[in-house]
Amino acid sequence: MKIEIWSDVMCPFCYIGKRRFEAALQQSGHQGEIEVEWKSFQLNPYMKTDPSININQYLAEAKGWTLDYARQMNDHVTQMAAEVGLTYNFDKSVVANSFNAHRFSHLAKKHGLGDKAEEALFNAYFTNGLNIDDQDTLIKLGTAIGLDAAEIKQVLDTDAYADDVKNDINEAQQLGIRGVPFFVLNNKYGISGAQAVPVFLETIEKSFSEWQLENNKPSLTIIEGDTCSPDGDCG
Q: Which positions, given as ranges, span the membrane (predicted)?
């Protein structure tokens, strides 16, 4: 069964949602039978990368808040993150456009490393204060999870996977997804936001049960002959 997750690297609730989803998936016991695919979404596609300021400063300026208020808002999210074992350092988080990070994720997905790439990017942005729009940073993150440095550089030097990122975003729009994280299970059920573990678990189990029924139907080898159909056609 497939579960698709639309997410943005700079979304604090996406990392929290990832942890809660992972806990639910582990409790379900179906990890080996579920494929998780990460999809791209940009909360602010027009954001300009600026390593000279952190996200608290950016929010204060962009929204007209005081710096103290911006920190208070992010402190609340930091506490939520701590509850699932994550360390957020917003004072270190570099303001960066996430488009190249999404292209990097698509390269990783091609090699079966999509989940590891997402984890590395989240950790780099929220915990370690790294610039996720910087080529050298992405190369280091990529080689650490098993990607080839030359291939990463080749991708980042071109527009490779740009269409894949845009296609993900367009698909999200078609599905009516307006915020992330957003989870689509078996192409049937959608979960919006970093929901509690029991919500994820209940939906995973429901979706998986239905998927099993759909895929365990007996397969018949049919020898064709003269038949009558419900609409009255015989022949």
A: none
The answer for residues whose C-beta is within 8 angstroms of residue 1's C-beta and 6 or more apart is 30, 33, 34, 35, 185, 186, 207, 208, 211
CA distance 8 to 118: 9
d(CA 14, CA 20): 10
94-95 and 50-54: which strand pairing? antiparallel
| Topology of domain 2-215, CATH | Glutaredoxin (3.40.30)
pLDDT, tens digit, 9 for 90 and up, residues 152-208: 999 999 999 999 999 999 999 999 999 999 999 999 999 999 999 999 999 999 999
Q: Which residues contact 29 (CB under 8 A, 6 or more apart)?
A: none
Evaluate whether 211 touches 1 at the Cβ level (below 8 Å): yes
Beta strands (DSSP E) in the chain are: 2-7, 35-40, 50-54, 94-95, 182-185, 189-192
